[in-house]
Design a protein that fits this description.
Layout (H helix, E strand, L loop, with lengths): L3 E2 L1 H27 L6 H15 L8 H13 L5 H14 L8 E2 H16 L12 H16 L4 H18 L23 H20 L7
Antiparallel strand pairs: 1-2
Length: 220
């Protein structure tokens, strides 16, 4: 069983995430139309295109350098808070004091935690506020729990995808407290948060990208 991942594996994770965003971008924009500008899907499409470019052949071979460049690339997407926080997450991962030619599950947990810490420097949103944090925080927590429990990288990403999906689904019953959606108050209940949903798709895509490279079916 795989004990770590390489930069090439991470590129496959990005490809898996991009594939899901492309398949679901119309749905993401539809979700956003209930409480925002209706452009979240388009924003996420541009973001994953930047990520793919940064991980394409000819880009830095060092994973952390590649993540930092990816972060800056996504920050350059004109998409408001979602692209800004997503770019911050990837850039923060690149600043983690972990890594090497092969990234262990503990290294991966440290990198995700560094990305989350960077995001928390930019927002006060917490799980329960109906934002991307409702999916991101459980996903990162799941990877750390998997690492501490001796699970493999694939198992950790499976757990993260499951936790992110559950967190995103829970936003249906929450009231928005940040962004334009907060002005709608209780009217936001009954709708999935687009940011949490796209974050869930990213982690599901990370998992798919890894397992498909192993010749196994995806979908956590």
């Amino acid at each position: 069983m795989r004990s770590g991942i390489t930069r090439a594996d991470f590129s496959r994770m990005i490809a898996g995430a991009a594939a899901l965003i492309r398949a679901q971008h119309a749905m993401l924009s539809q979700l956003d139309s209930a409480s925002g500008d209706g452009d979240h899907g388009t924003t996420m499409l541009r973001a994953v295109e930047r990520l793919e470019t940064c991980f394409a052949a000819g880009s830095p071979e060092d994973l952390r350098e590649c993540l930092r460049e990816a972060g800056w690339g996504v920050l350059g997407v004109d998409g408001g808070a979602s692209s800004s926080l997503l770019g911050t997450f990837f850039g923060g991962m690149g600043d983690a004091p972990a890594g090497g030619a092969s990234i262990s599950v503990r290294d991966l947990a440290t990198m995700f935690e560094a990305g989350l810490a960077a995001v928390w420097k930019q927002t006060k949103a917490q799980p329960g506020d109906k934002t991307m944090m409702d999916a991101l925080v459980p996903a990162v927590t799941a990877v750390r729990s998997a690492a501490d429990g001796g699970e493999s990288v694939i198992e950790a990403l499976r757990d993260a995808a499951s936790a992110a999906r559950a967190g995103a689904e829970a936003t249906r019953n929450l009231t928005a407290r940040y962004g334009r959606a907060k002005f709608l108050g209780e009217k936001t209940r009954g709708h999935l948060d687009p940011g949490a949903t796209s974050m869930s798709l990213l982690f599901e895509g990370f998992f798919n990208g890894i397992v498909e490279s192993e010749g196994e079916p995806g979908n956590a």
